[in-house]
Write a structure and sequence with these properties.
By secondary structure, the protein is an alpha/beta fold. It has twelve helices and eight strands. The chain is globular. Bound molecules: 1,3-dihydroxyacetonephosphate.
């Protein structure tokens, strides 16, 4: 269960969140929990989460380790700041910041080389779904952004299926729709990496996951977890999602 805070919260607000959140999930041992705040809050989050089961992640990274790349942050820097996870290829980065399948692959390899666990995002836009192109889009994103990983590399990633039309819109995919897309992705994994990898890979659903719809989504055997935006910003709502 991962929270993507996007561009929200300051270090002080991060500290407040953890003070409220940690007691609420102290007994939640059925899943891994991650919070991915903005870069500038990672240190505060790592400090606040120390001794708990909550892992911290970044929302992006650049694929060079260091250099003259103004404004960028590298995998080794994220790792050194105490984070374990990194979200890669989120649709907002694809839509607004020029992310492509090729750069998703570069970032994923760099994250793995730095010892971070990538959460690699895929998902179709509304027009693509309406044109019955969901499977084509997922296949293209998988082939371009993931399928060049070695078997060992692939075993370390988590995939997040986030239909763009469901993100921040309150329009959640029905459990059946999400499960269909997850089956497509798992089929691609099976074809490329084999049945064992397909059964082991964790595929998270993201897009308007809330305390009142998480149970239905998680009832689908295909859905292994959730990547939560808005509802992860408030301790009570993210804790009820974690403890669905
Ligand atoms: P919302 O949960 O706010 O729809 O955001 C989903 C998302 O983009 C998580 O990465």
């Amino acid at each position: 269960m991962a929270g993507n805070w996007k561009m929200y919260k300051t270090p002080a607000q991060t500290k407040d969140f953890f003070a409220a959140f940690l007691p609420l999930v102290a007994e939640a041992k059925h899943c891994e929990i991650a919070i991915c705040p903005p870069f500038v809050n990672i240190a505060a989050a790592v400090d606040a989460a120390k001794g708990s089961r909550v892992g911290i992640g970044a929302q992006n990274l650049y694929w060079k380790n260091e250099g003259a790349f103004t404004g960028e942050i590298s995998g080794p820097m994220i790792k050194a700041s105490g984070a374990e996870w990194v979200i890669i290829g989120h649709s907002e980065r694809r839509q607004f910041f020029g992310e492509t399948d090729a750069t998703v692959l570069e970032r994923t390899k760099a994250a793995l080389a730095a010892g971070l666990k990538p959460i690699v995002c895929v998902g179709e836009m509304l027009a693509e779904r309406e044109a019955n192109q969901t499977d084509v889009v997922l296949t293209t994103q998988f082939n371009g952004g993931i399928a060049s990983l070695s078997t060992d590399e692939f075993a370390q990633i988590v995939i997040a299926y986030e239909p763009v039309w469901a993100i921040g819109t309150g329009k959640v995919a029905t459990p059946d729709m999400a499960a269909d897309a997850h089956r497509t992705i798992r089929g691609l994994v099976n074809a490329k990496y084999g049945a064992d990898a397909a059964s082991k890979v964790r595929i998270l659903y993201g897009g308007s996951v809330k305390p009142d719809n998480v149970k239905g989504l998680m009832a689908q055997p295909e859905i292994d977890g959730a990547l939560v935006g808005g509802a992860s910003l408030e301790a009570g709502s993210f804790a009820s999602i974690v403890s669905f």
